[in-house]
Model the fold of this input.
Amino acid sequence: MLHYAETHFRFPVSRLYRKEPVILIDAPFQVCPGAPCPVWLVVRNANRFPVYINEIYGEWKNANGQNISFTLPVQQQLNKAFHFEELEFQKPTGSLGLWLLKIFIKYKIGEKEQICERWNYPYLPPKTLAINFLKEQAPKPSGWIAGDTHVHSSYTSDSVEFGAGLSVLQKAAKSVGLDFVCITDHSYDLIGDKRFQKMKKEIANVETDNYPSLLAGEEISCGNSENQNVHLLAFGNENYVKGHGDGGRRWWNTKPDLPIQKAIEESKVFCFAAHPKLQMLFAEKFLLKRGHWSYKDLTENKISGIEFWNGFRGKDFYKGRELWIKCLLTGHKLLPLGGNDAHGDLNCYTAVKKPLWNLKCNNEHVFGQVRTVIPDTGKTPFSELPENLYITDGPALWIEKDNNDKFILHAKSTEDFGKFLSIAIFRGKDGAEKIEQIKIGDLLSYDFEINLDNNLYTRAECETCMGKFAMTAAVYSPPVV
Ligand SMILES: [Zn+2]
Ligand SMILES: [Zn+2]
Done:
């Protein structure tokens, strides 16, 4: 996956090559009530290509015809490898909902003055920032916490991709309404234990009170049953686990360093299969020997769950969910995980479309959009396996036992995420799932009593009129005695 796209990849010859640093503006896609709305100027590789930022100016607009113009004189020479400069200018107050931010950067490289809108990526039209100022806090059961379980920081930094700084991620997490963030940089970017420990130390130092917690982890490249590279998410591992197979730095040898089970054992923590059915470019399959997770890989190794919701609901989500259900129906109690695989990408996702040729921009991997929500036990998330869980990009949906030992399915949305279009219960039994659509009215909140009967498991899914979706983990019927 190639994210905050990079334009200094010249080999063998690239139309995207520029003798300029990457310059872009980024800001969280949503802001919770009472949370700040930080906007950052991101500059990469100014150590090689120093740049003078003259000024930044622009305009906020919303659907009610309100607008706010601003000019920010920056007048700063930048010359470091990474800059994440927070910009202070007028932000909308009072009027909530969606605001668009059109923003321009006036900069100078040598004697040449230039202006770009949003970014200086070649051959990629500027995309206006869209920030949704929520009217209410994102719905969540009380005593539960929400996190993004797949995030790349600036420790993922190579010739084609880079992530956001740790303090940037922490601040953005607060704005979008996350309680924890799992930093899962690639094993092939962390390279060794020294850099991994440096990242852990930096995480400990950037953590600010009352801000979401950052959890150091790793996205380990390891070998599936066909000896192809697949990705494994580990959260809170003490030591680095090696995995250089598909990093591209060792192009003459793409063989995985460790098989899946060995990587899990070395991590000494619960591990999850990342994007099990990721759709990839032929070059990734062929040159980096990347593969998919199979049923065999998931069930013959000590896997705790599958992150099949990897930022958006495309083919890989549906194929991943199918594989998860197949595991559930055969008695393998895997947890579903939701993460975004964002590399920076706080507002939209930019990436290489055709290597060395052009870039793309869409909303597939935006930091904090898809969340995994778990009960707060006071312990570090995933230091133990959550007993209950749901994944969502908006509404809350969870199954809980009430005081009378009855199972209740709760569904909650807000005006920001829309009313429910459908709520369905899935019961797994005898190798198949039965779907039961629940009759719903015109409300934002429901509580249904559900019967687990003698099914193997029960789970639920819901969707709102704004296309927001949530699904629960499987709840298992108590054994019949
Ligand atoms: Zn990955
Ligand atoms: Zn990743």
